[in-house]
Amino acid sequence: MAELRRRIFGSSSNSTPELSREGTPDNAEDYRVIPAKKLQKLTKASKSKGNKRRNAWIFGLGGIFGIIVAGFFANSNDIIDLASLADVNLDSIMDVLPAGLIKDARDLQRHERDAVNYDSFSVGLHAQSQGIKAKHPVIMIPGVISTGLESWGTEEHSRQYFRKRLWGSWSMMRALVLDKTSWKRHIMLDKITGLDPPGIKLRAAQGFDAADFFITGYWIWNKILENLATIGYDPTNAFTAAYDWRLSYMNYEVRDQYFTRLQNHIETAVRISDQKVVLLTHSMGSQVLYYFFHWVEAPGHGNGGPEWVDTYVASWINISGSMLGALKGMPTVLSGEMKDTAQLNAFAVYGLEKFLSRHERCEMFRSMPGISSMLPIGGNAVWGNSTWAPDDRPGQNISYGTFINFRNQNSTQSPGNLTVDEALPYLFEHSDTWYKDSVLHSYSYGVAHTKEEVEANQLIPSKWINPLETRLPLAPNLKIYCFYGIGKDTERAYYYREDLDPASKTNVTIDRDVNIGEADHGVVMGEGDGTVKLLSSGYMCAKGWKMKRYNPAGVQVKTFEMPHEPDRFSPRGGPNTGDHVDILGRSSLNDLILRVAGGKGDLIEETIHSNIMKREGHTLNQHETGSRGEAWRWAPEKRENGREQHARAPKHNKREAPGDSEPKTHDLEPERNSKARKRADTVAGVDERKARPPWRRTYAWKRNCDAVLADKKPLTRFPDPSAWPGGKPNCFTRRHEWWLGACEHNIGRLFRCAEDCGKVLKGTEGPLAPGHSVSSAG
Question: Compositionally biased, Basic and acidic residues: which spans (predicted)?
Fold first, then answer.
């Protein structure tokens, strides 16, 4: 015992040592001092090993006993009689089971069945059974970042990456992690020229492999390819027109001759098959094809002439097309952020900043002019103003129209809340000159108000990306099918603050502390497909291209909306997803694609589930101009008693010519009792009735009078003509009296108004020139 105490407590004890009855060891070095706690652990470990051995023996004996018992009962035919199960009444069992249990079982069975039906080739096999087979050649144009980019540089710093994908593969991940500086040097374009930097050569991968998978296991176009192959498509009648999405659209042709190659391939496919082609586009690919339609017709470019599209293209399938841009493109180039980065937790944000900071991401995206093509198009006309937006929801406290919001208005970097019209100059103010010049030289984000403007823009390459400044091709036989998802939260507006991080090189950053209303970590969500807003993917299809100004040839446009109904058992959303990328694997979308490619597209019916045509009880009318840009106009729906309120008249400075053949639903002056329209009138702080010169209103009245006298339409704003004595009213007299009253009201500044109005109403003069009105000073 004394020896044990010495080993445990040490030999420096003041107590008298007790003589041991044990023998003295030969050498004290053969023993070492062990603390008490460690000794206890060793004791417990020894016991634990014994328990494990015992448990293993018991488990093994139990398993052997179970096998013997199972074999005994398996040999007894009286115990399990499968034939007797036929006498069991399953309906009676269903009546006894709880309803909730039965419902869960049926849902599970349905999900399992859907999972089987969602399997590869299933949609194609179903279409094949209905007699659908390959007819038109198919050409697919992928979206932004979908196409893989591979290195073809032979300089010393590029040889290790030769023919390896630096975008869209695991090689990209490896290069980004192991050699971030070299990867950035390869992926970024020259800031001045917008082309390859010296010694760097990245090119878009070609063939079906270019866009079927982004990385291994993450499909993009693969399911569409599988189903196309099922009905007879192969590399001889299907083609992927991959492109380098980093470039500006003009540089597609300058560096890669992309549009020339696409034109030649389409013409060759038509010549071989004797069938027009069907073009499939996704996301940014829809903008690329719209640009191509203008390029191929334009003299000095494609030289195809105005009939080229009608000759070679049967249908355009526009899948989730960002025709009016994507709002998330703005924070991407402003601060290198988006919803995906703003909603990361603090630890992930810290790690991302250390690995690839906001400034680095911002610099990288700005060096890619193709990304800036997706900045929002249409300004306040499409996206609203500081007090109102067309997609505002009922009861919403803060309008979507304020696109970039600053909580701290006293910050040195805060210019106040910004609309889309104001956000672009703010971006350029906080950017280098080379970026501003690159964007303004390559793209345009405005709105054309007259057919004359639209036709003039057909010859300006920077306008070709914008469907609000240019028109569709003169191809009356062309058919456009717009397929896109709805019902998924999508980025709509942002809260920003001054970037106070001394290590940061960006001026502003998303305010991740804002979680009010519909804002989540500083990102305000709205209606869309998770990436592109409904206004961008749906407006031109559902309304814009139904207008004569943008579709003079009457191209047939059908819209088919697909609600986002994700399968909780599928990581990609399953066969009914409406997500921006995952929709490419949606069963109904694949079925519609096969029908169009097989020549059965005429059987597709337009299907609209969203309120793209209606907002808060109003029907979308058309773009009209304001003194500071555009503002949506709304025409109220028909009332229950059959009376129809007319659409708002346009403002003066951009109105279309009176001889325009576009339907003039806005020519009649409306009653001004609608709050929504009153807001629209005061977008720029100018009252529409006062801003529009009287001669324009006079001419509109005269044309309306002519129509009334010709019995073409009823007279509005005055009593029912049938109630007037003598039957048909004297339209000119009544109008002249009305205008005399208006002239007397403005006699001080337009003293010749009565005389001029009389001449116009009598038909002796056309519309007055603005110079015929004189000011009160004169």
Answer: 625-647, 655-674
